[in-house]
Predict the 3D structure of the following.
Amino acid sequence: MQSHSALADPGISPHRPTRVAAEAALVEHYPRLVRLAHVILPSSLGRHRRVLAAHSLVQKSFSGARRSGPGRLPAGRRGGTERVPAQRGAGRPAHAEDQATERRSTAGDARDWLREQVVAAALTAARRPWRLTLRPPLPAVFGLRLFPRAGEADELALERVLARETAEVRAAFALCVLEGLSPRSAARLLAVAGVSAPDTALHGAERVRAAAGPEAESLLLGAEFDPCTVQTRPTDLLGRRHRIRLAALAAAVLLTAAATATAALRPVPEAGPPLAPVLAGALARAADPDRLVRAPDERWADTGRVDLTVWPARGPMTGDRALLGRALGAWVRGSARPGEPGPRLTATPDTPTTPPTVPARLLYAGVVDGAAVVLFHDGVRLARYTEPPAGRGPARLDLARADDADVTTGAAVVLARSSAGARFLLAPWIAESSVRDLLRPDVPAARLGVSRDGVTDPVPRASAGCGPPPVLQLRSSTRIVEDHAFLLADLGELAPVHLTWTPEPGTGAPSRQPREATSAAGLGAWARSACGLPALRGSGVRAVNRWEFARQQLPERAGAATWTCTRADTWTGHGRVDVAFEDPAGRARPVAGTAPRGADTAACGRFGRHLLAGTYWTAPSGAGYYLAAGSRRLTGVAAEGAVSAAVRGSVLAVRTPARGPVRLTGTLSDGGELRGWGG
């Protein structure tokens, strides 16, 4: 893919330009250089610090340029002596053209040299990001937070994929896609920048580019990756005032200690780590119930961010400072040791259990089924504190990830569980609520009662059949989303799981377009996959999508089979995939995958849009067949091994008595190859 860069495939700059030339090239290409640094830097820096670091690296990049003097003898110089400039009116068009060519070459060399410096500096910073944290670079911004404008869904998905890659892969991806370098030139530049294995980085970049598709360059040029067009927000104003006071107090203490040490003419031993007072102050503020953040009651109806941050504080005990203080204290102190009194701590996978260092947001405080319950949100986690009546056991603190919740995944939280069922606290934007049995899609959803504070009646756990989880069917208020209904399944954690569905080809649905599973077809599809949901309990799942990627007419007129891929995305962004073959009766049989069970994979997601799977099948007549089918972009299927066959199209059926391993390969419409599942 070609870039709109001035040079489509520049090489490595052969010399250092002068500072004047370097500064001129920096000003001309500043936005592209900053975007390049921004892509390479890790997202763990945070959006604000990452933007400032990208600008700092680019602004420092020209400092290595030479002050003056020749760095390389360009055309027009002989024996180290510069050609005498032409006199005014001398009429030397050929010489003027040579000078213009030389200036363009010098400008191009300066830009290429700056690109090398930026890539090398960004890779060094990515390997040691703690240096940027301990020593904030210039430019610096005080009292404001900067961050790029939010991109579209595809840009955000690409950002998450790049965040999981190494800095070397991000650099190779940016050089090839954003800068338009050829693989050879990119490898040479990476080697100059200190990358020990440029080929490995390029392979990783090709993997990311293949997943992003033909829109890779337009995605990198989007708002999500533009650190020069930023939005501003204030910092924590209350926290800033306290930090300033704390800094002033610390400065006074240091001055006093210095004066005492000077007077005594002997060193004063350190009382403890320098950060200890700051950390203690932060924990004290986080444990103060008077500092809890409370959103206005109607904020959710007039905001561009509909998630947990706009939940108002609800419940009859939101003013009980004693209860709130005990709940915050339990969170700040952590869990009790075995044999000691105190709250018992549980956390979903990959959820940090560290205490909060900033005041949390209060979502609920009240009595639920006889126990006092307090619900907090600190921007990353949900924390539920449960205090049973006296003599009925210790308090409990449950933590769960919730840092990317939205209208659906932030629509309900489990407040309590009892023998009668689970009670949920619904988001303020939920207008209708009901309960549905996934195994009985034809039965209408049963209305679910909700109190004024948003607490539901108990939702009993399903016991029939394979024991699928209870499912809430919720509808958003028309004040934010018109006629938007969706399903949430309770898998035993604080936040229920969002269920979606991608229809099979030929139904008129856009390619790779998950939709809400509330239609008759969607409910019927999930009725065939409901028994697989209990296996996801306790794994930190955020959303599950069932994709019917192929439909195949079986041999011997045995009916039509459906090939499905069920992807469970966790709150960390990782995905777990199960591929299955469903016979005409709806019985599902799992298909072995190329990725180990539980391993992260892009398959069936936004960056894994193509799929091919195969399995053995026995016809009603007793004859054996090997079947394979792929998604809609496949134009050919080939099998090797125990079965050898090749066909045009996306489905294959071969009569065979074999039962050995098969290696499947699919051909995509763009000529690429796809490895199949079930080999």
Notes: The CA atoms of residues 320 and 365 lie 8 Å apart. The longest strand covers residues 541-553. Residues 1-11, 69-104, 263-273 have pLDDT under 50 and may be disordered.
